[in-house]
Write a structure and sequence with these properties.
Length: about 625
């Protein structure tokens, strides 16, 4: 029982168990891992040997622990793990195994002390994941319990190479103390969702869970993401265990939706997604190869850990000849003993020119010049094969501004609207504004409302109809989307209109109506400003001017106003809104952004309620 384990953990003196020395582990590239689904604890060696022998990192997939250490299944699993891990060491000595420990969620169990549950403002337990309830990690006894379990149940067993803490950020208590186990050589990895900017001295790595997908969606800047990833590869404790994992872009992995689906429907949806979006896999893999981390591609948080395998994983790259470098066109490149890897996170199609004839491992094309689409990556292997006779596809979208405002439709339904002075907006097929760019650089995020129920389940666009293009000769471009935002039985109709002018000005207008009664935790209209670009800039609203803070301090920065400006080196941005917007430092909530947001409704909203919000943004290019 958990209470008994707490008492025993305080009294028990565990003999030091060193495990093996992993400090010199250095597998060849690519380095492939599996998150949560490898099955070392519930399959026989014969069932998994072929797949397991090719993996370099096992994150979980042993028995995922959610405050249920005394469950008889854990004890049963240990025997299977001991057999499989011993055979794994023979087949692939460089593979590392890190058991999964969830520190913030537990099953609805009477064994968990009642005082440990995290309570909402109504004094009730709340759930952030189907079947789980949140634990109050502010309690010292809860932190101590997790450390005791790590010491006594994980690091006391030589077969485990380290530990993986899920849903946890670098902290000043649990991570440093865990790192001191095994005489200061404990391997510790965690998942903070986005790659954090601190914790290198206590951690061997972090999991970038689907952050590559957020790069493609325009919610995260690629250059910023890559810089954070490379820092973890260079600055963290060794051996490096940082891992990038991503999913097919079109797969809706909402866990609450997933929990209600039939098994056969899940299988069909996963298989379709696996086949339809190998580009995201290539983008994630090539990005990972810019550093020394591990990569995984699967069905996302709804079914993490699929046993998918691609020919790119078998590329005979060997070891890198040096660090990655940035090319003038915004692509990144790294040379290996066995080939060259190029990744394009620039947001524009690029033309790659190599120094010798190579074969594109993904397409089979042979030559020294290749078109690399935006958000894609390729592995090029040297060859003496004859060059492919037919020319490669031409770039679809480049960074060169048009002479007048121009709209371009891309595969997958993305609409790109470019203005002559360098402003660029990118919309998904459902009308969600994915990126706001200036001369190819992401300067803002947001623009599409976030509507969510309790605890935080977002409404999703559905039944969206794209209106016809409207543009007079040489005039502004207008676009229109209409449809519904839906969450279970709750529904809202929306009409979105955008108008983009040649002078780097755009207007977004949303007209919404509640089609059912709503129970809303959040209805937010907002823009975000990335900290690396705007720290130190002057921001003004309601007659007050401040310098945006370099480091996190006070959360509230500027009070509500219908007019806001921020004056940075790269650009001056003015926002006018019919809805008052306030500025906060969103680093308090885990993202490296300043958030400018307004909230037109909340809690109970009656059917028939109408909401209209219009926001105009003007971007003045810095000199």
């Amino acid at each position: 029982m958990l209470r008994l384990a707490i008492i025993l953990g305080a009294l028990l003196v565990v003999a030091v168990c060193w495990g093996r020395d992993v400090s010199g582990i250095n597998p060849t590239f690519p380095r492939i891992g599996n998150c949560y689904g490898a099955g070392l604890g519930w399959r026989t060696w014969e069932q998994g040997a072929e797949y397991w022998s090719k993996l370099d990192l096992f994150v979980g997939g042993c028995y995922d622990l959610h405050y249920d250490w005394d469950n008889p299944r854990w004890e049963k699993t240990l025997a299977t793990l001991e057999t499989n891990i011993a055979l794994l060491r023979q087949a692939n000595p460089t593979a590392m195994v890190l058991p999964y420990v969830d520190v913030i969620e537990g099953y609805d169990s009477p064994d968990i002390p009642q005082g440990w549950w995290d309570l909402n403002d109504k004094g009730e337990r709340w759930s952030g994941w189907p079947g789980m309830f949140r634990i109050n990690m502010k309690l010292p006894e809860v932190l101590q319990y997790n450390l005791d379990m790590a010491r006594d149940r994980v690091f006391a067993r030589a077969m485990f190479d380290g530990i993986f803490y899920d849903c946890w950020s670098p902290d000043d208590w649990l991570c440093p103390r865990t790192a001191q186990l095994r005489d200061g050589k404990a391997v510790v990895m965690l998942n903070a969702w986005n790659i954090p900017t601190r914790g290198f001295e206590s951690l061997n790595g972090v999991l970038a869970e689907d952050e590559i997908n957020r790069v493609v969606e325009g919610r995260v800047d690629f250059e910023d993401f890559l810089a954070r990833y490379l820092n973890w590869c260079r600055l963290s404790r060794k051996p490096v265990t940082t891992m990038i994992v991503c999913r097919p872009q079109a797969l809706n992995d909402d866990p609450w939706r997933w929990s209600k689906m039939k098994h056969e429907d899940k299988v069909a949806e996963i298989e379709k997604a696996r086949q339809d979006d190998e580009q995201t896999m290539r983008f994630g893999l090539a990005t990972t190869l810019m550093g020394d981390g591990y990569f995984g591609y699967d069905a996302g948080t709804a079914a993490r850990g699929n046993w998918w395998w691609y020919k790119e994983y078998d590329a005979p790259l060997g070891y890198p000849k040096g660090d990655c470098t940035r090319n003038e066109d915004g692509t990144w490149q790294r040379d290996f003993d066995g080939g060259t890897v190029v990744v394009n996170g620039s947001g524009y199609d690029a033309v790659v020119r190599l120094q010798r004839r190579c074969r594109d491992l993904s397409t089979g094309r042979v030559g020294d010049t290749f078109t690399l689409p935006m958000f894609d990556g390729r592995i090029f292997l040297p060859t003496d094969e004859p060059e492919t006779a037919t020319p490669d596809i031409a770039p679809r979208l480049t960074a060169t501004p048009p002479e007048t405002v121009r709209a371009t439709s891309l595969p997958g339904g993305t609409t790109v609207i470019q203005a002559p002075r360098g402003l660029e907006l990118r919309f998904s097929q459902s009308g969600q504004l994915q990126s706001i760019l200036l001369k190819g650089r992401r300067i803002m995020g947001g623009g599409f409302p976030v509507v969510a129920t309790h605890p935080f389940l977002q409404f999703q666009p559905t039944d969206v109809v794209v209106g016809p293009e409207d543009q007079a000769a040489g005039g502004p471009v207008e676009r229109r989307w209409s449809g519904q935002l839906a969450r279970d039985e709750q529904r809202v109709s929306f009409i979105e209109k955008v108008r983009v002018h040649a002078d780097n000005r755009f207007t977004l207008k949303f007209d919404c109506e509640a089609l059912t009664d709503l129970d809303i935790r959040m209805w937010r209209h907002y823009f975000t400003f990335p900290v690396p670009l705007y720290a130190g800039a002057k921001a003004s609203a309601a007659g007050k001017t401040i310098s945006l803070p370099e480091s996190l301090g006070e959360t509230d920065l500027l009070s509500s106003s219908k007019q806001f400006t921020v004056d940075a080196e790269a650009a001056k941005i003015s926002v006018e809104s019919t809805l008052p917007l306030a500025l906060v430092d969103h680093r308090r909530y885990g993202t490296e952004e300043y958030l400018l947001a307004g909230y037109p409704v909340w809690n109970a909203v009656k059917r028939g309620t109408k909401i209209s919000v219009e926001m105009t943004v003007t971007v003045t290019v810095g000199e």
